[in-house]
Every structure is written in C-alpha cells, then in structure tokens.
Amino acid sequence: GIQVEQSPPDLILQEGANSTLRCNFSDSVNNLQWFHQNPWGQLINLFYIPSGTKQNGRLSATTVATERYSLLYISSSQTTDSGVYFCAVELMNTGFQKLVFGTGTRLLVSP
Amino acid sequence: DAGVTQSPTHLIKTRGQQVTLRCSPKSGHDTVSWYQQALGQGPQFIFQYYEEEERQRGNFPDRFSGHQFPNYSSELNVNALLLGDSALYLCASSSLAGVPDTQYFGPGTRLTVL
Description:
The complex is a heterodimer of chains A (111) and B (114).
Chain A: E1 4-7, E2 10-14, E3 19-25, E4 29-37, E5 43-48, E6 52-56, E7 59-64, E8 69-74, E9 83-91, E10 99-101, E11 105-110
Parallel strand pairs in A: 2-11
Antiparallel strand pairs in A: 1-3, 3-8, 4-5, 4-9, 6-7, 7-8, 9-10, 9-11
Chain B: E1 5-7, E2 10-13, E3 19-24, E4 31-37, E5 44-50, E6 53-57, E7 64-68, E8 74-78, E9 87-94, E10 104-105, E11 109-113
Parallel strand pairs in B: 2-11
Antiparallel strand pairs in B: 1-3, 3-8, 4-5, 4-9, 5-6, 7-8, 9-10, 9-11
C-alpha cells in the first residue's frame, strides 16, 4: 500500500518562529489534505491541496504532485498552533475517498 | 450549517461487550467514513458507507460493522470488545460524486475498554 511519511516527528518552537513540515508519499494521489489535531482530538481541516500552493493567514501549503511531496509552512507561530499535524492522501483512480494518514508531526509552541 | 456530529463523546465498556457509535454527516454530504485512531498514531480507515451500502473496507475484522440510514447518518458497531479496541473513533463525511473532495471530520468518540 501507499506509504505516507512526515518529518520531523517532533518540533519545539518559540512563539513567533517559523517552521516547515514535510509530507512524502510513495504513489500518485487524487487528494491531499493537511489537518491539525487539537488536544481534544478534533481534526481541523487546514488545506485541500492535491497540487499547487494555497495560503490561509499564517499558514500556507505547497504540493508538488510529480515529486510526491507536500510542505506546510507555519509563520509567526502561536501557542495555539500546538498539536499534531497530519497529512492524508487518497490514492488516484480508486473511486473511493479513503484517506491514508501520515505518521504526524507533533508541534509544541512555547511562549 | 452544522458540521459533522458524533455521539457519545466518551464511552467506557468492558471486554466482551458490544458498542454502537453514531455519526451525522455535514449538511449536503451523502458519504460517511469511519476511522480508528489509537493513542499516538494516525487515524486508520475502517470502512465507508454510501447509499446505505458499505463501499470499501480497511483491514478490520468482522467484529466491526456499520450501517447507513436514509438520512445519511451512520452507526459503527463493534462486537466482542477487546482491550485493543480502545481508541478515538472518528467519522468523516464527504460528497461521493466520483471526484476527489475535502473530507470533514467530527469531534470523535473516545472508547475505553476495561
């Protein structure tokens, strides 16, 4: 099956710092989403980005589908950014919306 | 516009018991998927329901079963509970129009098996 790997596994930042999270996947995909899981377990949609670049406030994401990776950029980090970040992909041409999640990046932003 | 809702929020059961978890999809969505998230891991796909039928299943035993109702809401049933079934169970909804689309997740049900 498809492999989805995220790096780094853990990240500790000082408030105000910038960071880049990476997601590598081993096969062609139809769909790629970035999620933030808060301490209560809620998965919050950040981006639906099978290709290209998107920005939403302090967050932006880029997916290079031909090279099978995606990057999530967090600028001017805040303590509320803490949590686990997952990328999830959907295999191409399956006709089903089954997401395969990566291993996650645990982010801690300290004041 | 209500998002994806799940009930109950928390549940404690003992080994061998049966449990039913419920999910209502986001307004306008007709497809419900269920995921299991063990502590410290990413969510794992259990199965997906569309038009009241199971369309795809992940690597989970038959103890895990589901149902989708005409109003698109869904139930996840787990029989003969094992300690290893303790996890956060997440429901996701989407619109299965043959085109990849954003999936939206509910807040989850945290199941503890003692």
